[in-house]
Specification:
Blueprint (H helix, E strand, L loop, with lengths): L1 H6 L7 E6 L5 E7 L8
Antiparallel strand pairs: 1-2
Length: about 40
């Protein structure tokens, strides 16, 4: 699971869109970084 989080470059407070991907395992379909990272 941690490899998957690192692959998507997810951090605490990032917003993700999740939908049903199968019987049990959810699937992340989008990540919104707009309000969670410092803008330079």
């Amino acid at each position: 699971m941690l490899d998957f989080i690192a692959q998507l470059d997810l951090h605490e407070n990032d917003l993700v869109t999740v939908e049903k991907g199968g019987e049990i395992i959810p699937k992340i379909t989008a990540v919104d970084f707009s309000g969670t990272r410092c803008q330079q």
